[in-house]
Design a protein that fits this description.
By secondary structure, the protein is an alpha+beta fold. 41% of the residues lie in helices and 32% in strands. It has nine helices and eight strands. An eight-stranded antiparallel beta barrel has the order 1-3-2-8-5-7-6-4, surrounded by six helices. Helix 6 crosses helix 8. It is elongated and about 60 Å long. It starts with a helix and ends with a strand. About 3% of the residues have low confidence.
Length: 265
Amino acid sequence: MRAKKLLLTLSVIWMMAGQLEAQQQPVYYQTLNCIKVMPGKGREYTQFVRDTSMKVAQVRADAGEILTWSLLGSVMPAGQEARCSHMIATLFEGSPPAPRGPEVFEKALQKAGVNMTASDWTTKLNSLSSLVSTEMWRHRIRLGAPQKDHYLFLNYMKVHDAPEYNDFENAIWRPMAEEWVKEGSQSGWVFATKVLPSGTDTTYAAYSADIYPSWDAAFKQRSVQTTFEKVHSGKNYQQTMTRLGKVRDLARRELWVVVERVAKK
């Protein structure tokens, strides 16, 4: 019962924090569609998405309906253990639009030059894949930008103290991520909190994404302490990192690759 009350309290705190931040800076929402591709259909699925969904996403980005659209492929975990073999991530500035009906989507297909009806598109997609889940996230911090073939570690977090954790990511980790992006060892970094689904059954409430320009960059050894001491002169590294362990736990870490990405031309 105590854990349930804590999770509900965290949700309320983040909602209130979001209202305050919305008065000061742009609000970014993201939908993550977790997709499981049928065995042996990976290449066909990817090509179908390139030929249809990606073209529609480009039209929407150019019209200002979305900021970015990305097709991600799971590197690890893989196989039967992977809950998602692919993800489609769509980023919006401001509140995301309501779900579109088949008539609206069919017009979007036509505008994108895709010679298919919405019904035919759905039938083909369902023969290649299944939608596992859809989640909505709020981007709190966005640094840099991933490109096609970049790699990212997606770190899902169980949060124990939302205000403290938000402060840590913004005040402590953000300057270090800015330094890594500046020097080119990372191409981007994101910190996001979960909007939906929410409640006591949610196993993770936040994620951070460490984005790298190449496979080698993703696995290159680096000293976090050295960067910390460079950007946080006067702060104690050990004491600060001990604080992090008290406000969140790393629930799961996955490795993804950016298969395709769309942004406004």
